[in-house]
Design goal:
- This protein has 714 residues and is an alpha/beta fold.
- Helix content is 47%, strand content 12%.
- The two termini are 55 Å apart.
Amino acid sequence: MIWISSFPRSGNTFFRNILYEVYGLESSTFHVDSDYHHDENYQDYPFIKTHLFPHQLEPNDPKIPAIYIVRDGRDALCSIAHHRKDIVVPGSDYYGNLKAAIIAEKGTFFGGWSGNVKEWIERAELIIRYEDLVTDPVGCAERLRKIYNLPKPRPEKMPTFEEFKFGLPKYGSGKDRDISEEEMRELARKNFRKGKVGSWKEEMPEELFELFWSYHGETMEHLGYSKEGEIIKLNPDLDYQVMHKLGIPYLPTPAKRKKILIEANKLVSGDNDGIKRYQVELLKGLLPVIKNPDRQWDIDLYIQGKIQPLTANKKLLYNDFNTEDTIIKDKQGIKVKKSLFQRFEGTLVNIIPDNFIAYLNKHNIKIFHKVYDIIKQTLFKVAELIVKAVRFIINLLYLIKTWLKHLFTDPKTEKQFRTYDLIHLPLMQHYPPFRRTKSRILVTIHDLTHRYYPQFHTSINISNAEKGLRFITRSEADVIAVSDSTFRDTLKECRINKEKVHLVYEAAEKDKFRFILNRDETGKVKKKYGIPPDGPFFLCLSTIEPRKNLTNTIRAFTKLIEENPDYNVNLVIAGKKGWSFDKLYLHNKVLSKRIVFTGFVNDKDLSALYSEALALCYVSYYEGFGLPILEAMNCMSPVIYGNNSSMPEIVGDGGIPADPDNIDDIKQKMKQIFEDHDLREQLRKMALKKSLNFSWRNTIIDTLKVYDQIINRS
C-alpha cells in the first residue's frame, strides 16, 4: 500500500482518477472524521488517499511509502472556501471561510496549509506539484515507478478535466453513496469546480492575499511558488530536499566545501535583544543548509573559546525568550506573572491613602511626585543599592572571565581559525579572539548609535564599539549592514571601500509573529500581564532605556489624557528594565490605571499584544533596523515611529512618523490613530503589506551570497 496525501482541494481526487483510468488501479480513503466514509478494508487497496498528518495514519508505519500532492496554497484555500460554502456548510460566507482557512486557528483546516505541507515534505518519498499534474498527468504518474511497479499506462484513456467535471468519474462523484445520478453529477460539478491554475488571482481579495503570504509565504517559496504566481527556481542550499522529491536535478557534490566559522557567544548570554534574535534566526536558517548531504558549506560556531558544529547547538537556537518573573495569582486564581519591581511598586502605592493621593493630585501634582519619591527612596534605596552591588560584582567577574578568554586565545584555536574560508562576527564588539587571525573576516553592523547618540550609552559600550570599528578597518573586513540607513552610516563613519559593504536586511520570524484573530486568546494574554480588558491601548515594546525615548512617549500620552479625559485608552509599556530605568519611572496613581508596565513579555505572548494594539509607539531616536517594528507590522499593527535612521525605510506606509523631541507631535499622532478608525484600518493593511518585503529566507539566501562573494574574491 502507498499513501496518497495532500492538503484538501489540491488534486488528490484528480490523481486517483488518473491511476484508475490510465492504469486500472483502484484506491481507497482514510479519514478519522465520522462525517466522511471510508472503506473498512482500505488497507487492501494499493493506494490510500488521506488529508491527515503522518502521525495520524493507521497504520502509523514510516516504512509505508507515501507521495504528496501539493498545490499553490492560494488556489487550494480559495477552493476549500468555495467547497465549504457549496458542500460542507451550504450558504456559508466565502470571505469568512477563506480568512478562517488562511489562519487555521488551533490546527483547524487539517493543520493549516503550511503545517500540512511541512510535515508531509519530510515524510513523503515523492512530491508532485498540481500545476505539473494538470499539464502532464501521465508523466507525473509515471514518477511512481520509483516506489511502485505500475502497469503499462493507457494514455488514450485519460479523460479531460471537463469529462471529470460533467461526467461520472470513479472518484469525486459520490458513486459510493446512496444518491441519484443527478445528485452524482451535481457533486462532480462541485468537486471538480475549476481545476484552473492561478484562479486565486480572481478569487482572493488583496487584503487576504497579504494575510495569506504573511502566514504561508516562506513555505510557498520553499516549493517554488512566487508571490506573483509563477513557478520559480528553487534554491539548492535551502530547497535540496524538495528538489530531490520533485525530481529536479541540482548541482553535484562539490570537490571541496566552503568552511564558515560564526562567532556565537550571544547564544549563551541572558539577553533577549535584537542582536541575539538576529543571530538565533540566522543560525536557525542555516541549519537546513548543512543537512544537505551534497552541501557546499560547512558551518561551525565559536562559543566561549571553543569551536563546535552548528548542529551541536540546536537546543540553544530553539529556546524561547522566557522571563524569570515571579508567578503570583490574582483574585480569580489565575496565574499572573509580575516582576519583583512591580510587586514592590504595588505595595508602595497601596500604603498611601487614596484620599491623600486625590487631594495632592487635585491641588499640586508636583507635591505628590515629591512625596512619592521620598517614600520610594526611603523604602527601597538600600535594597536597590544591594541589588546593584551584587549585579555589578557578578557582571564584573563575567566580564573579566570573558576578556581573559579573548586576550589569551588558545594557540591551537588560533591555528584552527586559519582553516576557515571566512569568519563571521554578528556583533563587532566580539572581535578580540580574532584580532590576530589572517582569515577573511565579515562583521555585521547593526547600528552606529554610539557615535550619533553617545549620551545613550555607557562608556564601556562606546569604547568596545570603537575598538570593533578599528578592528574592521585594520583587518580589512567586509561588513553586512542590516538596513540601507546602516549601510549609509557605515560608509560615512568607517574607512571602508563601498564594495566591501553588503546590504542584507533583517527579518522577523513569521511563524512566531503573526496576526491573531481570536479575541479570547488575546484577552487571556492581556489578563496575564495586568492589562485592562475593556479598553484599547497603545503599545511600547523595547528594553526600557533612554534611546528608546519612552519618557517623551509617556509625556505625550499623559498630555493626551489630560486634554481628553473621556478617552478610554491605555498605554502598555512592555520590556525589561534597561540601564537607566529608574530615571524613567515616575509612578502616578491617578494614571496607574492608564499606564501599565508589564515587565518582560514572553515571545509567545507578543503576537497577541501586537494584534490588539491600536499602534506600536516606537518613537526612538535611532534604530539600525528596529526589529519590534517589523514584528508588529507582521501582526497588522500600525507604527508611530521616530522620523529618523532606518525607521521610515522599514515602516513605509505602515505607520506615521513623529519627531522624537516633540511631545505635541507624538501626542497628535496618538490622537489621530485613536480617533480615525478608517485611517487605522488602512495603516493596518499597509503595515502587513510592507512587512511582506522582509523574510528570513531572503536573509539567509543573501547572507550565503555574501559568503560566496567574499570567498571567491581574488
